[in-house]
Design a protein that fits this description.
- The complex is a heterodimer.
- In chain A, about 75% of the residues lie in helices and about 0% in strands.
- Chain A is mostly helical.
- Chain A has one domain: MetI-like fold (Orthogonal Bundle), CATH 1.10.3720.
- In chain A, α1 runs parallel beside α5, α5 runs antiparallel to α9 and α8 packs antiparallel against α11.
- Chain B has a 6-stranded mixed β-sheet, with helices on both faces.
- In chain B, α6 packs across α7.
- The chains are: A mainly alpha, B alpha+beta.
- Chains A and B meet through α6 and α7 of A and β7 of B.
């Protein structure tokens, strides 16, 4: 159960950070008219197609004692970043970024532009328009983003294995734990953990689809529309 | 409040040009002064009315030009001034109204008053809700009130900010005439006290009549007419041409002279000596035009008519008569060949026959200018 608690702690941290990063990033992606925007969109979507091991490999290189991020961290805090919980958080944020950003972009884009015009004419600046109009009308998108990034972080394996290693209480998450049990032929324990994860994932996705259904339109789903 | 008093009674000057980015169908090129009071911007849809309002509000950027309120410059392509919409102190009611669906009526109206102290804010909100008769709805959401009520709320939300200019983009579309005129009355009462320039966009004639103020007619991005409704619209220079289909008579004609005061122009039909009077249009003397007249709109007389209001009486001769079902089709040579529809009973009692001398009577407004 230590592994499950760790996974949940990691997922909470990652979802919170992703919300902070995701809101401005998604706003920019939804409303910027910059021609090179598609490049940024591609970078954000990369974790969807890259094998987690590739992402994890580069994250590990960056966080190693000779990597740029690792060096910076070492100078600032006196210890390395690789194979620590913090390092895991960094890598997971990258890995789950599209799952937070895409539902946010979709719901920001669905807000009627005339409402934004009306807000501006009524004297509101960009921040006030975002706070009072765009965000309240994007609540389902925000919930979807939070739930998906939480669930996706709980379920990750490859990145954790590459970056975190397998340190009990610090980087051994549920998925690693299951892998360990299987390696040691402890199928009962593996099954126990796997069932917990299966039930959890089902509940999470039910919430997402339930919210979408309640709103009456598809905010975001893992399947392409039509 | 001193600033607000000073800010009132200032005219809006706007001289802008903008190439339409998507469709190069026309270039908006308008120079307009809007004095305090209601000015109607009239034109068919696609004439550039909304584009002009968007430029004035700062939602679209003109290619060049200048927009000022009094001595305050909002946009100037020369000096690179371009105030964002939130700093223009304007009110803009969209055709879609754009009420915030997640807010109550009161929250919607309070939206533009963020900078005001709380006590002042609630006084202002209550006053405007009463002025537009939506006080009892303050806790409802836009989806829970009727279309007319939504329109009143949208007006109240815009006007509560004490704007320097009010832009209205067909705000009363879809309301019945009675409701329309009651809202217009409330708007007029409000503006009698405020005296700001109001630019009211519409394409319906009944709203123009209900407002009865200065009308500026916009067509394909340009101001084509400017004056009081009866000056501008009762003597319409019909620019939107009728389709020639459905007219039995489509005649070539040459413009002789324009009589703007009467709202008519005289044309000569074909190469003949026959002259008739038709509604004034965008044409100059010697222009070649096409006149369309329905066969059923032409009266036929066997004696020269006198004491008629119809202005066009042409003498001619029946060439042929043919009964088709319940109508008789007469071909009449009167300088040019006319087709006239009459009832069989009329044909009998007038004893019409080929070769008989007749007079054709055409009302001026039965003569339509058509495109090729």
């Amino acid at each position: 159960m230590e592994a499950l608690a760790l996974s949940i702690r990691l997922a909470l941290c990652v979802s919170a950070i992703l919300l902070v990063i995701g809101l401005p990033l998604a706003y920019w992606l939804a409303y910027s008219r910059w021609r090179g925007k598609f490049l940024v969109e591609s970078v954000v979507a990369l974790p969807l197609v890259l094998p987690p091991t590739v992402l994890g490999f580069y994250a590990l290189v960056a966080m190693g004692t000779r990597g740029p991020l690792g060096k910076l961290w070492q100078t600032a805090f006196g210890h390395g970043l690789a194979f620590t919980f913090t390092g895991l958080v960094f890598a997971s944020v990258l890995y789950s970024l599209p799952f937070a950003v895409q539902p946010l972009v979709a719901s920001f884009e669905s807000v009627d532009r005339k409402l934004l015009d009306a807000s501006a004419v009524l004297g509101a600046n960009t921040l006030r328009t975002f706070r009072r109009v765009i965000l309240p009308m994007s609540v389902p998108g925000v919930i979807t983003a939070l739930v998906l990034s939480f669930a996706h972080t709980v379920g990750e394996f490859g990145v954790v294995l590459m970056v975190g290693g397998n340190i009990a209480g610090s980087t051994r998450t549920v998925s690693i734990d299951i892998y360990d049990h299987v390696q040691s032929l402890e199928y009962a324990q593996a099954n126990h953990m796997a069932l917990v994860l299966l039930a959890f994932s089902f509940i999470v996705l039910s919430i997402v689809y339930g919210v979408n259904r309640h709103i009456g339109r598809r905010v975001w789903s893992p399947w392409p529309a039509k | 409040m001193a600033g607000e008093v000073n800010a009132a009674k200032l005219a809006l000057h706007c001289s802008v040009a903008r190439q339409n980015a998507n469709t190069s169908s026309f270039t908006l090129d308008v120079s307009l002064e809007v004095s305090p009071g209601i000015t109607i911007l009239f034109g068919v849809s696609g004439a550039g009315k909304s584009t002009l309002l968007d430029c004035i509000a700062g939602l679209l950027r003109p290619d060049r030009g200048r927009i000022t309120i009094g001595a305050d410059t909002l946009f100037d392509s020369e000096t690179l001034v371009n105030l964002p919409p939130q700093r223009r102190q304007m009110a803009y009611v969209f055709q879609s109204l754009a009420l915030f669906p997640h807010m109550t009526v009161e929250e919607n109206v309070a939206y533009g008053l963020a900078d005001l102290a709380k006590s002042q804010r609630s006084t202002r909100i209550s006053a405007i809700l009463q002025a537009f008769r939506v006080e009892p709805l303050r806790a409802r959401r836009p989806a829970e009130i009727s279309g007319g009520e939504q329109q009143r709320v949208a007006l109240a939300r815009s006007l509560v900010t004490l704007p320097r200019v009010l832009l209205l983009d067909e705000p009363l579309t879809g309301l019945d005439a009675q409701l329309k005129s009651s809202i217009i009355d409330d708007l007029r009462v409000w503006n009698a006290a405020q005296q700001i320039p109001v630019l009211y966009v519409t394409h319906t004639r009944d709203e123009v009549d209900a407002l009865g103020e200065r009308v500026v007619v916009l067509d394909r991005g340009r101001v084509v007419s400017d004056g009081l409704p009866h000056e501008v619209l009762d003597v319409p220079r019909r620019n939107t041409l009728a389709q020639s289909s459905g007219f039995e008579n489509v005649l070539d004609a040459t413009v002789l002279d324009l009589r703007e005061a009467d709202g008519v122009m005289r044309v000569r039909l074909g190469e003949s000596a026959s002259e008739i009077e038709v509604p004034l249009s965008y044409a100059a003397p010697n222009d070649r035009v096409k006149i369309a007249i329905r066969a059923g709109d032409i009266l036929l007389a066997t004696q020269k008519p006198i004491g008629l209001s119809a202005r066009n009486i042409l003498e001619g001769k029946i060439i042929a008569l043919e009964q088709r079902g319940s109508i008789v089709v007469a071909r009449v040579e009167a300088g040019v060949l006319f087709t006239v529809h009459i009832t069989p009973g009329a044909a009998r009692s007038l004893e019409l026959a080929a070769g008989k001398q007749v007079w054709l009577v055409l009302k001026t407004h039965s003569c339509h200018l058509v495109s090729e």
